[in-house]
Amino acid sequence: MIKRETRWKSRLAFVARAEMNNASVPMTEPGGSDNDEAELILDPRVQESIGRSLKAHYDDIVNAPVPDKFLVLLAQLEAQEIRAASGDMSDERL
Amino acid sequence: MSASDFKDGLIKEIPNLRAFAASLSGSMQLADDLVQDTLLKAWGNSEKFEPGTSLRAWLFTILRNTYYSLYRKRGREVQDSEGTYAERMATHGNQESHLDLADFRKALAKLPEEQREVLIMVGATGLSYEETAEICGVAIGTIKSRVNRARTKLAELLSIGGLDDLGPDRKTAAAIQRVGSEIVGL
């Protein structure tokens, strides 16, 4: 959360600086390695919008009804295991 | 962990497995095959799951490995047409957000796999960067870098600045269009 806020501020400062210089701000900042967290920063509002769409896409499927076949499959697997276990027990009794 | 607890855990994760599998494969039909394989493998290897660790992360690892070893090629061959994919998956919401969601999914499907999977894991599933890094077998820095590249590429594909292409929230879209014009001079 704190990190995000800091990014917001640094991004806004970046935009403000560029506006003062009357220059256009690139979508991505040049340079930066894989591990450089500040390498590539989209406008936070763009990030938020993408984040919302990602959740909308994902949650749409998460909230869809689960096909019965998965529950049937797991019930069968469990029943198999119970049968195997009780089979072992009756063997012991014999 | 008893078999019954393990089963309950698996049942709870099915919706997330389906959403992740669909995001990976781009097809709801392949996704459900992939989830079925994942459940079978998880059941057969339940003794390898360490109670107290994240079941979701463990299952995602299995699903992802299964996808890359068995499904990736099939996915490319039989991938649903974009329309079918979007229609089948958009289950609720009004027409407007339905269209936005369909557009977003088309753009998402165009991302390279390695970027798409991490964006989904970090951005939608509730998994941490650490867990995502572990699932993918790469360093956290690599995950962060892929997420950033994925976002930038998505912004490009959705041609940010175009009100109709942006996503469910029009107010945000409008704000971004303004910001976008300032930033990229559109």
UniProtKB/TrEMBL annotation, chain A:
Q: Where is the Anti-sigma factor NepR domain?
A: 47-81
List the Pfam families.
Answer: NepR (PF18557)
Q: Which domain of life is it from?
A: Bacteria
Q: What is this protein called?
A: Anti-sigma factor NepR domain-containing protein
Which organism encodes this protein? Bosea psychrotolerans
Provide the taxonomic classification.
Bacteria, Pseudomonadati, Pseudomonadota, Alphaproteobacteria, Hyphomicrobiales
From TrEMBL, chain B:
All copies of the RNA polymerase sigma factor 70 region 4 type domain together span 103-154
- Entry's Gene Ontology BP terms: DNA-templated transcription initiation
Q: Does the keyword Transferase apply?
A: no
Tree of life domain:
Bacteria
Membrane spanning stretches: none
Q: Which SUPFAM superfamilies match?
A: Sigma2 domain of RNA polymerase sigma factors, Sigma3 and sigma4 domains of RNA polymerase sigma factors
Q: Which CDD domains has this protein been placed in? A: Sigma70_r4
Alphabetical list of Gene3D superfamilies matching this protein: 1.10.1740.10, Winged helix-like DNA-binding domain superfamily/Winged helix DNA-binding domain
Molecular function per GO: DNA binding; sigma factor activity
Q: Where is the RNA polymerase sigma-70 region domain?
A: 14-76
**Similarity field:** Belongs to the sigma-70 factor family. ECF subfamily.
- PANTHER family per the UniProt record, alphabetical: RNA POLYMERASE ECF-TYPE SIGMA FACTO, RNA POLYMERASE SIGMA FACTOR RFAY-RELATED
Report what the protein is called. RNA polymerase sigma factor
